[in-house]
Specification:
With about 325 residues, the chain is α+β, with helices and mostly antiparallel strands. The protein is built from nine helices and 17 strands.
Length: about 325
C-alpha cells in the first residue's frame, strides 16, 4: 500500500473534530480548487489597483500580499480577495464567482494608465494548506509558485497557486508526509466555525463590505480615494447600517435561503450552513435590533441563536 493510500485511509477514519483540530494545530490540506486569478502588468499596475481598491496596496513589495475589496460606485461588492505583489506583475486571487464581472469592472476605467489584465484562471489552481505547520511543510517546495499566507479559511496557512497537475502533485506529497486531508464540506465547516464569509454565499453585489464584517480586514481609512469610498464612509458612521452578518446556531435542516423571523416579521436570512463539532452552525444577515450574542430568532419554525456578531461599525 502506498504512503498516499495509507494517509487517505487515516484521514477517512478521523472524526470531523480531529480533522479541524489538525487544521488549526498541525497541518491539513484541502482539495485542489479553481480560482479566478488575474494578473495586472504595466508600469502603473500597482498604483491603478491601489486607486481601485479599498486597501492600501501602494505599500506592497514583491512577495507581500493584502486582503482587499473592489466596489461599485454605490459601495457594493464587485469582488474580494488577496492581492499579491510579484516581480512580474500583480496577482489578484478572487472567488471564481466574481468573474467575469471583476475583470470588466477593473478594465473599464483604464484610460491613461499603463496596465493590462490577463485572466490566468484556466492555467492555475489553488492548493489550500492549513495549520501552523504549513509554512514549514512548504519550505523548499515550488519556491517560484505564488503563495498567499492568510487565515480566511478559518485557520492559519497559505494558498499555493500552481498549474493543475503540479497542484495535485504538491497535495499528494503533503498527504504522504502526514498532512490531514480535508474535503470541501470539512473546509466549509472550518470556515463557518471561524465566522469567515465567502463570496457568492455570504457576500455578493447586493452587499456593502461593512455588512459582511470586512471593515478591519479589507478597508484602509488612511489611504487616498477609491471607487465607492463616499458610500463606505457614510455607511460606517455610527448607526447607519441596518443589516449585518452574524454567526448562528441553527436547527437541523436550516440552510442557505432559510428565512429568519421575529414576532412574525422577516428579519433576515441564512446564507451558508454546515454541520460542525459544535452543532449545526450558519452565517446569515439580521436586522440591527438582533445584533447581540444570545438573541433568538425563528428559522423555519425552530429557534436559531446568534453566537457571534460579524458585521463591523468602527468609530472613525
Amino acid at each position: 500500500m502506498s504512503a498516499v493510500s495509507r494517509d487517505a485511509i487515516r484521514s477517512a477514519v478521523m472524526t470531523l473534530a480531529e480533522k479541524l483540530r489538525a487544521a488549526r494545530e498541525a497541518c491539513a490540506v484541502g482539495p485542489v480548487q479553481p480560482r479566478a486569478v488575474l494578473r495586472a502588468t504595466g508600469k502603473d499596475a500597482q498604483d491603478y489597483l491601489h486607486r481601485m481598491s479599498t486597501q492600501d496596496l501602494a505599500r506592497l513589495r514583491p512577495g507581500e500580499s493584502a486582503y482587499a475589496t473592489f466596489l461599485s460606485a454605490k459601495g457594493h461588492l464587485v469582488a474580494e480577495g488577496h492581492v499579491l505583489a510579484r516581480e512580474d506583475g500583480i496577482l489578484l486571487d478572487l472567488d471564481p464567482r466574481a468573474q467575469p464581472d471583476a475583470q470588466v469592472h477593473l478594465e473599464r476605467l483604464v484610460i491613461m494608465d499603463e496596465v493590462v489584465f490577463e485572466d490566468l484562471s484556466e492555467a492555475l489552481r489553488v492548493v489550500p494548506v492549513l495549520g501552523p505547520e504549513a509554512a514549514r511543510r512548504l519550505t523548499g517546495r515550488v519556491p517560484e509558485a505564488p503563495r498567499i499566507a492568510h487565515e480566511r479559511r478559518g485557520a492559519p496557512g497559505a494558498d499555493v497557486l500552481l498549474p493543475p497537475h503540479e497542484a495535485e502533485a504538491l497535495r499528494a506529497e503533503l498527504l504522504a508526509e502526514g498532512a490531514v486531508a480535508l474535503d470541501e464540506g470539512e473546509l466549509e465547516a472550518l470556515r463557518i466555525l471561524a465566522a469567515v464569509p465567502r463570496f457568492g454565499a455570504d457576500m455578493d453585489a447586493s452587499r456593502l463590505p461593512m455588512e459582511a464584517g470586512l471593515t478591519r480586514a479589507a478597508i484602509s481609512f488612511s489611504k487616498g480615494c477609491y471607487i465607492g469610498q463616499e458610500v463606505v464612509l457614510r455607511a460606517t458612521a455610527r448607526g447607519h447600517l441596518q443589516r449585518g452578518l452574524v454567526q448562528l446556531a441553527l436547527p437541523g435542516g436550516a440552510g442557505p435561503g432559510t428565512k429568519l423571523t421575529a414576532g412574525g416579521q422577516e428579519v433576515g436570512v441564512v446564507t451558508s450552513a454546515a454541520d460542525t463539532p459544535e452543532g449545526r452552525l450558519g452565517l446569515g444577515y439580521l436586522r440591527r435590533a438582533h445584533w447581540k450574542p444570545g438573541a433568538v430568532v425563528d428559522a423555519g419554525g425552530q429557534p436559531a441563536t446568534v453566537r457571534r456578531v460579524i458585521v463591523e461599525e468602527p468609530d472613525l
